[in-house]
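From the pipeline queue, job 12 of 40. The input is one protein chain; the requested action is below.

Action: predict structure.
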Amino acid sequence: MYPAKECVPPAHRLFAHLPRADQRRWAGVYLKGLLATQGKKSLRRIAASVTPSPTAPQSLQQFVNDSAWQWRPVRAELARWAAEHTAAHAWTLSPVVIPKRGELSVGVHRRFVPAFGRTVNCQLALGAFLSGDLGDLAVDWQLYLPRRWTEDARLRRQARIPEATGHATAAELCLALADRLARITPEMPPVVVHTDGHIDAAAVIEGLQARGLDWIVAVPDTLPLSLAASAGPHPADAAALHPAPEPAGDLLRRHARPPTATPLAPGQPRLRTTEVLLPAGTRPALLVGVRTASRLRPDRLWLTNLPPARRDRALAVIGSATTARAGVAEAELGLHDFAGRSYPGWHRHATLVSVASAHRRLGHEVCLAPNSG
């Protein structure tokens, strides 16, 4: 049991590595402002909601965009802190589309967004979320950079993109997030990946499988899979042991059966499953179709490598993941509102938003250091 309210100064733990007292002080101001400011979280409005100081917006600008503090230690400590206060049923990796005007925000590009049904000007972030009883808590981020942002020296210089940061696919960014989570998590829960038309499901499955992780990945109905021998009629010959791959949606439609797990409560998604073989391999997996309406076709398909003894857990995670809205709480706290144009600035802002969201979700207060105004 944890207290309903716990005053945890950012300088005490999450921002303890910051070398200067003024940096720790402005971290507290920024967090308090994110939580207190209604509507758009501009630097001026964040500052005004916390302190009457006329120089506060400039100080916050310096703290986020120009101060050289590292964001990854904060995120690693945030992940540990969140895991101490709510059990992790899964680590969820999810794309978050951030619509933008203009072409100057780091990583901005034109992208078709299936959820919107149209092409938009946006940034694409990949978030890592601790999924537990309190919902999804953001603890880490990657920002997708199209090739023009990594290959154009002028753009790199203007956005202050680190020299070691090159182009990576969305799947590669997800795998990098999973690697960081695995390093700080003694007992790694399943990794749930929402692909949402932005992440190559086959590539991320191959990477997670190679790492020996348990995973549950949303897959397109076109993903080629083979039916496992245990899911179909007994094979008449050896060739039938290795059936030709076909689209996942077709396999599920012809071979689906209700799960053996306890049925979900009324109003919960309806699940249908079948045993398949992983892409380009012979390892067994479970294909799960989720329907939330009276339609013949499932709303979403999931693939998981969790073994039969843990299938109940996989189905429970899938049932809750279907209605999950990863990134919504962070958007409400200003994730989309960052007006700066630099790569370090975006990452620091995303880090502060994540810390503010965790404080709110966990019922904790943010303490300001003395003389924060």
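Job complete. The first strand starts at residue 90 and ends at 99.
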